[in-house]
Amino acid sequence: MKKNIHITFIINPISGNQDKDDIPKMIEEEIDSKRFDVDIRMTDHKGHAAEIAKECATKGIEVVVAVGGDGTVNEVARSLTHTQTALGIIPCGSGNGLARHLCIPMNIRKALNIINQCQIEAFDYGVINGIPFFCTCGMGFDAFISLKFAEAGKRGPITYVENVLKEGLKYKPETYEVEDDTGAKKYKAFLIACANASQYGNNAYIAPGATMKDGEMDVIIMEPFTALDAPQIAADLFMKTLANNSKIKTFRTKTLHITRKEPGAIHYDGDPIMTDQDVEVHIEPLGIRIVTNPEAIEDNGQPNPLLNAFSDLFNNINNVREDIEKGSRRIQVINKLMLRKLSKL
Question: Which terminus, N or C, of the chain has the lesser number of Cβ atoms within 10 Å?
Fold first, then answer.
């Protein structure tokens, strides 16, 4: 008789905004007990998910499911790289970047049904200064906004946009030397992002065309911008049209070396840390096995102008506009730009 597949669910009880008390019961109700043997583990400190996942991989557990946000997913996934243990995702965070890229449903019961189908594929992942990432990493304002987002009292797409618009106009760009296999170039940049997957989370698409199966990362260099540019850049993030923006330079590479003038923050999947002037990034091809949605492909398709997050941006823009330039003519111009974009929906 065929043996059951062993699955361990690792639940982070404090990730995101939703209560997870009912999730063990949902797992019991939805996961097919005739095919799977289930174990449920709860985390109680930062790094605990990585410890549990490593233990599971050592024991040869077939699937380990991260129940939480991008931080929990990163912890679990980095312990499963180059093993036969597959990563599953039940998205319960505030961004859910990797889950959204892979078209994993945000509804918990529907996501559990994806685990039931247990279709497993190999994907690329990235490494920045020795730390694995699965969606994005970056520096400059990219890492700075991760710090601000982590400090925010509320989570979600509007918090992200508020921080971008409020802090972005005060942030001073840096000069970077960027070297790939074609040589070295200098850029004065607002941020440099390296994307293995298409988005940060919350449907904010930093690299709409990115795929996790090409053995390369998408590198996004954002040049300094003004108050007039900010609403367009924010809109492009949510409409999958950032590559068309004149302030954006993009290319693809397997490896990247970045030198900056002084130490500073970087982030990996939104988790910020401080590091030195030199930053090394590379892609590990097909180094992580993931349970995928058999009815969907990676989310790297054409722009969708009806994204809910884009509508939320304009519905809530009054929360930040006074902080940008209260009562100035620039705000009038910005509002016209926003209304023009909104009228195209």
Answer: N
